Amino acid sequence: SYVLTQPPSVSVAPGKTARITCGGNNIGSKSVHWYQQKPGQAPVVVIYYDSDRPSGIPERFSGSNSGNTATLTISRVEAGDEADYYCHVWDSSTDHRVVFGGGTKLTVL
Amino acid sequence: QVQLQESGPGLVKPSQTLSLTCTVSSGSISSGGYYWSWIRQHPGKGLEWIGYIYYSGSTYYNPSLKSLVTISVDTSKNQFSLRLSSVTAADTAVYYCARVYSDSDTDVFDIWGQGTMVTVSS
Questions:
Q1: Cα distance between residue B9 and residue A9, in whole Å
Q2: What is the torsion angle, in degrees rounded to the nearest 10, for the CA atoms of residue B71, residue B52, residue A88 and residue B120?
Q3: Half-sphere exposure of A52 (CA within 13 A, CB side)
Q4: Which chain A residue's Cα is nearest to B40?
Q5: Please, are residues B96 and B112 in contact by the beta-carbon 8 Å criterion?
Q6: What are phi and psi of A56, to 5 degrees?
Q7: For chain A, which ranges sit under pLDDT 70?
Q8: Which of A6, B20, B100, B108 pairs as cysteine with A101 (C-beta 3.0–4.6 A)?
């Protein structure tokens, strides 16, 4: 089955830029979605179709996808961005269909 | 804005069947264009997709859970449900229901319920 690989943790100082990667074989050919999950809360989609932002998501959140790596970028990081982030793709080549990355804990120093 | 709410027992005995219902409000489950899904999250772990259903009844399941899972829909009540049989302690998790926007080459979990914790214990 298709595998998505994320770093377990990323740390960044307030005001700086955080980049969270999601690796997968030829992931650039797939649409990647990103979810933010704060402690005790349900996940919320922050980026879909690689780089689109749902309404209500700050412009500080952006995404890119090429080759074997998709990236979620958070600019001017704030304390409130501290959360777990998951990437997700749909894999039509197998019965598994829905694939999540293992998640990345973003810590704001 | 569509909202989803999970309901069901918070405690299930080993070997029994876990049953949860998701009620959809401020929108119709039959509106088309969306699947309706269950996802779970073991304590301190990542997200695991269980399966999803279309309002017509078409289902897709995680192959690793397929033999134990049934997802059904009741359009008259605007609800969909999860049944997971022969549960063990390994099924202890937070269970989320979610709406899935689906097109020809991808799907997006665009709206989630708040989640419900289910513990499997005697």
A1: 34
A2: -10
A3: 9
A4: A42
A5: yes
A6: 95, -10
A7: 95-96
A8: A6
